[in-house]
Amino acid sequence: MTVNYDGTRYNGFQTQPDGNTIQDHLEKAIATIIGEKPKIHGSGRTDAGVHAIGQVFHFLTESTVPAERWPLALNGRLPKDIIVTNAREVHLDFHSRRSAKRKTYRYTINANQYPDVFLRHMQLHHPGKLNIEAMREALSHFIGTHDFTTFASKHSEKQSHIRTIYEARLEVDYSMTRPDTRDQGILHFYITGSGFLQHMVRIIMGTLVQVGEGKHAPDAISNMIAAEDRSEAGPTAISKALTMWGVHYEEFNT
């Protein structure tokens, strides 16, 4: 199944003792249909406050409910900020996380003078002047296969920090900028990779903001990666501006 959610009110995707996670709500809703609580497996974790468009999860069931009816059945049982958009039957050897080939995240910075009253819970507001072209250039240095220890949480438990970034791009939306002001638009950063380490995208973004502020040159990114030292990178950017944008499989894309 594919699920979209506004993560503002939740403690991330993966189940927690307090029960206020996306997984907890999905399992509870599914249980009302099949009569027992399932164990769902997500394509990846998202932190508290992070959103998703195209998060994938799977579970085993002997239910006879046709796949195409699951989204409507679940959405009537889920909070309004969690929406299942697709369901399909897959082979038993499919796994939402292990079968994934690529994942894409989007990070959004509002570089206009004032925050957006409607989308403020999904954006990092940065009213100060940013060197957008420097940020775009710095972003390109992440593409390729690298050891991303510098851009991983110190609490990362992964044995290997080697990941591949296939694509990294910046799109600027000027539709909400006001003429003759210091507004710079809404900056959407898209990063597609083989997988991501804990806080990896947010640390990349915290570093890119510093590049935009003139604290680092764009070509300093390569040296940061080579250092394999978390202290070389910038801060971890806030979670609310991050959205899991999609998961890609050989069999199908979401």
Structure description:
The chain has 254 residues and is an alpha+beta fold. The protein folds into 2 domains: 2-86, 2-Layer Sandwich (Alpha-Beta Plaits); 102-248, Pseudouridine synthase I, catalytic domain, C-terminal subdomain (Alpha-Beta Plaits). The chain is 19% helix and 24% strand. Strands 1, 2, 3, 4, 5, 6, 7, 8, 9 and 10 form a 10-stranded mixed β-sheet that branches. The protein starts with a strand and ends in a 6-residue tail after the last strand. The mean pLDDT is 96.
Averaged pLDDT, please? 96
The CATH H-level homologous superfamily of the largest domain: Pseudouridine synthase I, catalytic domain, C-terminal subdomain
What separation lies between the terminal Cα atoms?
10 Å
> What's the shape?
globular
CATH topology descriptor of the largest domain:
Alpha-Beta Plaits
Q: How many beta-strand elements? A: 10
List the total number of helices.
Answer: 5
CATH classification, class level of the largest domain? Alpha Beta
Radius of gyration: 19 Å
What proportion of the residues is helical, as a percent range? 10-25%
Structural class: alpha+beta
Protein name: tRNA pseudouridine synthase A
Subunit structure: Homodimer.
Domain Pseudouridine synthase I TruA alpha/beta: 3-97, 138-250
Pfam families: PseudoU_synth_1
Key terms:
single chain; 254 residues; alpha+beta; Alpha-Beta Plaits; ten-stranded mixed beta sheet; tRNA pseudouridine synthase A; PsdUridine_synth_TruA_a/b_dom
